[in-house]
Amino acid sequence: MLDANVLVLNRLWQAVNICTARRAFSLLYTGQAQVIDVEAGKFNTFNFEDWKDLSAAFEGHEEVARTISFSIKIPKIILLLLYDKLPRSSIKFNRKNIYQRDKNTCQYCGESPDIMSLNIDHVIPKVLGGKSLWTNVVCSCMTCNLRKGGRTPQQAGMRLIQPPKEPRWQHLVRFNIKTMHHESWKHFIDTAYWNTELENDEDK
Ligand SMILES: [Zn+2]
């Protein structure tokens, strides 16, 4: 129940992420976020106390989290009060997200082989002091990985399709909504879609 998905909006009401109900409650409780509840096409915001009071009406409801002293309804959407973007560390630097950023495509030859035939390549190899950072790792197929070996792209006579960057929030949200969403998310996901298309370097 506390692992349920909650859509996270920034101060500008743009979808920036999806978090767990557990994380959402922690943000609510500390006053860093409010709940957005959609009722009859209207968006209402609630702070923690108001949401708790409202939840009293939902006793016995399946989407309620219980503590020792009270029950609270699991929100579907929260609004961050402080950040335009979530802290950067919230995008986990892991294999799944690296593959996702690179769309399961080898960043050297552009092929998209079976996912098991992909690897993570350090552009500047670790042995040459290359770090494990978003800006130094790319998806690579086994063939390109072997060909490159412990060399830089330049040394190996290979070129990256594009320099690796830290992924953007909107990109991840768009990827995730296909498999999990609530009807009430739709308005904000559509907004995220249009914002992504129109964003430029000035937003960075
Ligand atoms: Zn390749």
Label this structure with key terms.
204 residues, alpha+beta, DNA Binding (I), subunit A, 2 domains, 5-stranded mixed beta sheet, two-stranded antiparallel ribbon, 7 helices, elongated, disordered C terminus, binds zinc ion
Describe this structure in words.
By secondary structure, the protein is α+β, with helices and mostly antiparallel strands. The chain folds into 2 domains: 5-88 and 169-203, no CATH class; 92-156, DNA Binding (I), subunit A (Orthogonal Bundle), CATH 1.10.30. The chain has helices at 21-29, 48-55, 95-101, 142-148, 153-156, 169-176, 186-198, and strands at residues 5-9, 15-20, 33-39, 42-46, 64-66, 71-73, 77-80, 118-122, 137-141. The strands form 3 sheets. The chain has a 5-stranded mixed β-sheet. It has a two-stranded antiparallel sheet with strand order 5-6. Strands 8-9 form a two-stranded antiparallel ribbon. The longest helix is centred in the C-terminal third of the chain and has 13 residues, at 186-198. The chain is elongated. The two termini are 35 Å apart. The relative contact order is 0.15. Zinc ion (ZN) is lined by residues 106, 108-109, 111, 140-141, 143-144. Zinc ion binds at residues 106, 108-109, 111, 140-141, 143-144.
